[in-house]
Amino acid sequence: MRKSLHSTLLNTRAGKALLDTQNLLRAQITNFTFNLGFSGKFYHTGTIEEDEGDDLLLGSVDEFWWFPHMWSHMQPHLFHNESSLVEQMILNKKFALEHGIPTDMGYAVAPHHSGVYPVHVQLYDAWKKVWNIKITSTEEYPHLKPARYRRGFIHKNIMVLPRQTCGLFTHTIFYKEYPGGPKELNKSIQGGELFFTVVLNPISIFMTHLSNYGNDRLGLYTFVNLANFVQSWTHLKLQTLPPVQLALKYFELFPEQKDPLWQNPCDDKRHRDIWSKEKTCDRLPKFLVIGPQKTGTTALYLFLIMHPSIISNSPSPKTFEEVQFFNRNNYHRGIDWYMDFFPAPSNVTTDFLFEKSANYFHSEEAPKRAASLIPKAKIITILIDPSDRAYSWYQHQRSHKDPVALKFTFYQVITAGYHASAELKALQKKCLVPGWYATHIERWLTYFPPYQLLIIDGQQLRNDPAIVMDEVQKFLGVTPHYNYSEALTFDSHKGFWCQLLEEGKTKCLGKSKGRKYPPMDSEGFSVKLLQRSQCGTVKASTQIGTTPSIVAETGATKSEIALGKSF
Ligand code: A3P
Predict the structure, then answer these.
(1) What integer is the mean pLDDT of 391-398?
(2) CA 265, 281, 476, 306 torsion: positive or negative?
(3) Dihedrals φ, ψ of 499, to 5°?
(4) Smallest Cα–Cα separation from 323: which of 274, 387, 374?
(5) Which of 289, 290, 294, 491 to mutate for ligand 1's pocket (most ligand atoms within 8 Å of CB)?
């Protein structure tokens, strides 16, 4: 029921052939059923014969499964407003209702590979609203090629299944004119690519164009012969499941594929072509400050945004200013959500967008996710003695009136054993886990080359920030050079370095940064000494080649790992 310049609509004979072939295929594939897409706008827009073909299919509506395309077969990514997508979908739904087409299959396919991946979130929302879509499929995730790496994912509760390619396209409608000759098509069916696609994928989804069911009916030819060949040469039992069941089965087989891994849509030409022009790829950070918490990350953040070319994200009210995209469920909101935190840079080359989320450092997921979306980004971490970090966190919790931190001494917290209460163990974990520096850095180095990672000595940042900021500027390659020696001043009242404002005034961090609390007591200190004495060498740290003192600091973390885990 769709017409395009290169295709013809189905006439009655072709419609009958479709029904007959479906019956034929059912002998080889249990429950085989064609799933027909409809774009209602093209109903009855062909020749008399083709319009009769439309009527024949609609007269056999119960013989098939049906899924909505777009009303006018437009690419969804061209609609920026969800409301205009909704409007289009409602037209198609009205068409379906008027013609007795079932509207509850839960499956939809977007025309021209658009909107599903890269995700056009407006499409997902409109699909949910109008059709309650639960499943779709695409050939584009993570990329069209190599086909064997295609995967599925779930976004906004819509299960996206990988769709395979069968070698039939809008233009391949005549047997003799098949690219390379009919032998190429037959080769693919008889032991070639198409055969292997079915053999190697427990679940295969194919979609071919209407034109492949008219003309020389290559769609029918291909699948009948493929089913025959598979049945003759393998012991595979083929069967068809309705979309919802199929998707559930898919993620039962591949549960690890549920979580998506977003990439930059502009890194793949095909993706860029189906990425809304209104969503530039420039609103992504060039570097991340990953933490860990309590090492001076807020001070670094303040100093960074003093630089005229360094621009941070806008604050997130939900996540305490930080975006916290890569480490948490915010990731599942998609990259539109993330990019909305960043302004479009006025100069893509010289402007440096960045964000600081101090929980990224010890997150299992963050390095992999960040490397997938912003593989060229530079990564900055700050380290201090891990026991000082743990103690600072403990004090942080005390000042937030955490009853566990108020009840127990620091020593009791970090030495709590197996039988301790869940709350005490949770606090212990928050004190110690981010301090397993070597483990976390090694994970970041699995995904980012060492030259993209800068480790800052947090003690030096605290005592002599101008030197550190020079190093940071050099590492980032940012211009113009900003003179932090002049821009920062030591505020004796605060006891820390602060931004120097006009008339000698200062802008320091708030009360929650640089708190006043008693030094670690002798018990806590004994743990610190123990850590130092157990200091190991960490492979990751030796690769980094930044400030040598850091190597020693990072080395100390190995003992923290041993110490933390043996409690
Ligand atoms: P304390 O409050 O325990 O002293 P983060 O911002 O990563 O949470 O780190 C907070 C820590 O930054 C503070 O911990 C403080 O020691 C340290 N810091 C380093 N330079 C600072 C500065 N110029 N102003 C305030 N705190 C700073």
Answers:
(1) 98
(2) negative
(3) -75, 135
(4) 374
(5) 294
- Show the tokens assigned to 160: 């996206």
Ligand 1 environment, Cβ below 6 A: 293-299, 358, 392, 395, 461-462, 496-497, 509, 513-515
Alpha-carbon separation of residue 455 from 381, 432, 492, 531 (angstroms): 5, 19, 27, 20
Residue 423 has φ and ψ, to the nearest 5°, of -65, -40
Strands (E), 302-449: 310-312, 352-356, 378-383
Q: What is the pLDDT of residues 485-497, one digit of tens each?
A: 999 999 999 999 9
Q: What is the pLDDT of residues 118-151, one digit of tens each?
A: 999 999 999 999 999 999 999 999 999 998 899 9
Strands 65-68 and 35-38: parallel
Q: Residue 360: pLDDT above 70? A: yes
**pLDDT the model gives residue 532:** 53
> In terms of residues, how long is the chain?
567
Distance 459 CA to ligand 1 centre (A): 10
Tell me the CA–centroid distance for residue 115 and ligand 1, in Å.
44
Give per-residue pLDDT as tens, 401-453: 999 999 999 999 999 999 999 999 999 999 999 999 999 999 999 999 999 99
Residue nearest to atom 12 of ligand 1 (CA): 296
State the first-to-last Cα distance of the chain, in angstroms, to the nearest integer.
68
Can you name the residues that pair with 162 across neighbouring β-strands? 138
> Ligand 1 mean position to 349 CA, how many Å?
32
- Say how far apart CA 156 and CA 554 lie, in whole Å: 40
As a whole number of angstroms, the distance between CA 128 and CA 447 comes to 35
Backbone Cα Rg of the chain? 30
Query: In whole angstroms, what is the distance from residue 494 CA to residue 497 CA?
Result: 8
Closest ligand 1 atom to the C-alpha of 497? 23
Q: Higher model confidence: residue 566 or residue 98?
A: 98
Phi-psi category of 191—alpha, beta or left, where left has phi over 0 and alpha has psi -120 to 50? left
CA 241, 243, 233: angle at the middle one, nearest 5?
40
**Segment 442-482, tens digit of pLDDT:** 999 999 999 999 999 999 999 999 999 999 999 999 999 99
CA distance 474 to 468: 10
Residues with catalytic function: 294
Rounded distance, CA 220 to CA 216, Å? 9
Give the type of residue at 485: S
